[in-house]
Automatic annotation (TrEMBL):
<dbReference type="Pfam" id="PF01370">
    <property type="entry name" value="Epimerase"/>
</dbReference>
<dbReference type="InterPro" id="IPR001509">
    <property type="entry name" value="Epimerase_deHydtase"/>
</dbReference>
<dbReference type="InterPro" id="IPR051783">
    <property type="entry name" value="NAD(P)-dependent_oxidoreduct"/>
</dbReference>
<feature type="domain" description="NAD-dependent epimerase/dehydratase">
    <location>
        <begin position="10"/>
        <end position="211"/>
    </location>
</feature>
<dbReference type="GO" id="GO:0004029">
    <property type="term" value="F:aldehyde dehydrogenase (NAD+) activity"/>
</dbReference>
<dbReference type="GO" id="GO:0005737">
    <property type="term" value="C:cytoplasm"/>
</dbReference>
<dbReference type="InterPro" id="IPR036291">
    <property type="entry name" value="NAD(P)-bd_dom_sf"/>
</dbReference>
<protein>
    <submittedName>
        <fullName>Putative sugar dehydratase/epimerase</fullName>
    </submittedName>
</protein>
Amino acid sequence: MQAIGKVGLFGAAGAAGQSIAAALSAAGRDYRVVGRSRQPLAAAFGHDPHAEIVTWNPDDPASIRAAAAGLQTVIYLVGVPYDQFAAHPPLMEKTLEGVKAAGVERLILIGTVYPYGRAQGNPITEDHPREPHTFKGRMRLAQENLVLAAHGHDGLSTLVLRLPDFYGPGVERSLLHGVFEGAANAKRAQMIGPVDVPHEFIYLPDVGPVVEALTRTPAAYGRWWHLAGAGTLTQREVARQAYALAGRAPKLMVAGKTMLRVLGLFSPLMRELVEMNYLMTEPVVLDDTALTKLLGPIAKTPYEEGIRRCFEAARNTASASGTTRRSAAETV
């Protein structure tokens, strides 16, 4: 039986990295978290004796090689600003060179649905054509093509794990974060519409155990896989459930494509969201039957439970913020 080696999370400070790290720690496995700045890594992982904290410069080949030294598996989670997607392929190319030079055996790219373009009927399996019609989709496609082309060369095995949109407690970079924040603070939720189209979301804490399993499943490599959410529901239904937990009726502020264009005159992020708004009107829904056959049953948190946990996290944050403000006022 092959020994299970150390895993490195490149771009670890985000919510997905924390989910995967939690699963590795729960399995008693040592892991390395890699990022540009030590402070956020220390804040997120400094409490875990299984974690080793390493900083890197992903533009420096020597730094990449040093960050990967001694690792069996690299999980690639490196993000770029939403208006700088052209950086994805060159960053991936440099990383692949560095990890191969360091003797890494396996690399997992956490991917998106962007490379598919418009769905040709839902749910889709892994044999769906990759025909992106957006710039971001083309950049993501180029990135994962580099990963897949590296499989079987210089001792490296690779795979792509494709996820739908995600949500989770305290996950700010989620389409649904504004709903939980609004419900917890008795304010209007800021959302991107349309909100009445069935959409797929994955509860982010469910991702970690799947990735941990893939790091020790050699048969998984050389292709891409889907990890689906717990079915579909509309954003309006998420809001209904979240506000019901707060004992309130939903209050929503929905920005559709036209509003995003207007907001984009003032906000680069809003401007970039226009291109990908097709995923709100024509969502891509993933079929993960193949992954289930490979790994066995995959635990997925039902939406009702996930929404409750997210609301409770937002309420705790709101309560803590209120306590901080009151304490500050008392000391003035």
